[in-house]
Amino acid sequence: xxxxxxxxxxxxxxxxxxxxxxxxxxxxxxxxxxxxxxxxxxxxxxxxxxxxxxxxxxxxxxxxxxxxxxxxxxxxxxxxxxxxxxxxxxxxxxxxxxx
Length: 99
Description:
The chain is mainly alpha-helical.
């Protein structure tokens, strides 16, 4: 990997770090707005712990903020996975570098 590639991946990693921080703030706001009980229900739904019949019924109860929180969780999951990959590439190709 050349220095240009390294700089590009490093910039992507920084952007992902910023996105993750923003998503965590949004997650916290939504969780506060929805309350512990509703967040617990959404977590069960998100983690696919509901029986199929209950899941379909629960899906019908989702409002805007419920959907937005699950969207935030999805974005966080993807951003964290991508950030992990970027970090692994950087460490693999430049193990002694500390940019």
